[in-house]
C-alpha cells in the first residue's frame, strides 16, 4: 500500500530548516490522509516549522477505509508523506503505529520502510525518566463498544459531520474568518459524547496503570487532552495528541521532558498577530522617517 501510493517530490517545496522549533519528541495522529477532512495545509505548516529527535505517528495517518471507497489523493497529501520520509532521511527516528483506519499497515509490524519503523505499540522514555506507553487506542473500543459495526456507523456519521465542517470552513476562509471546528463545538455540547470521551480516557489510563508505566499517549478519539489519574496510589498520565481533522493538535516533549499539547490554529493566529504588530511598527517608523 505504501509503495502503491504515488509519492513524488513535493508540489509545495520544503523551506530550509533554520527557523524550526526543535523538540525532543513529537506525537501526531489521526491525520486521515486520503479524505477531504484532513487539514493538510495546516499540517504542512506544522511540519515545516518543527523538528524533533523522535517522531511518533500514532495511527490513522492514512485513511484506508475511505481510500478503498474513493481514491482521493491531492498534491498536499503527497507533500505530507514526502516530508515525513524526508525527516527520516535527515535522521529523525520515526515510529509509525498504525491505527484502525490504516490497519492494513499492521501486517508490516517490525519492519522498516525508508527509516520509518512500523510498530504495534511502543514505550517512550522521557528526558526526566517517565516511561510512557504509546498506542493508537482503538484497542479499547472492544471495552467501550460491544459491536464492531457500531464503529462503522460512527465512522459514517463522523464523515458526514466532517464534510459539513469542511464546507463551513471553506465559506469562513472566503469571508476572511479564522478556522473553526464545528464538530469540536458540537462534541462539547453533546453530553453523551463528553461522557464517552471521559470514560475512554479512564479506561486507557487504567490499562496503562496495570502495565506499570507512568503514562500513556494515544490518539483515536480526536480529542487532545492531558489528564492525571490515580492508580492504586500511583500517578498515571493520560495524553491524547488529538487530530488533524478538527482540532489540529500535536503533542510535544521539550528537551527537559516537559510535555505540551500544541493547538496549531492558535499558534498560527499568534504568529499572524505578531507579524501584524511588526508590520504596524514598521509603518510608523517609515512615516516618522518621511
Ligand atoms: Mn482511530
TrEMBL record:
<keyword id="KW-0479">Metal-binding</keyword>
<protein>
    <submittedName>
        <fullName>UDP-2,3-diacylglucosamine diphosphatase</fullName>
    </submittedName>
</protein>
<dbReference type="InterPro" id="IPR043461">
    <property type="entry name" value="LpxH-like"/>
</dbReference>
<keyword id="KW-1003">Cell membrane</keyword>
<keyword id="KW-0464">Manganese</keyword>
<feature type="domain" description="Calcineurin-like phosphoesterase">
    <location>
        <begin position="24"/>
        <end position="223"/>
    </location>
</feature>
<dbReference type="Pfam" id="PF00149">
    <property type="entry name" value="Metallophos"/>
</dbReference>
<keyword id="KW-0997">Cell inner membrane</keyword>
<dbReference type="InterPro" id="IPR004843">
    <property type="entry name" value="Calcineurin-like_PHP"/>
</dbReference>
<keyword id="KW-0472">Membrane</keyword>
<dbReference type="InterPro" id="IPR029052">
    <property type="entry name" value="Metallo-depent_PP-like"/>
</dbReference>
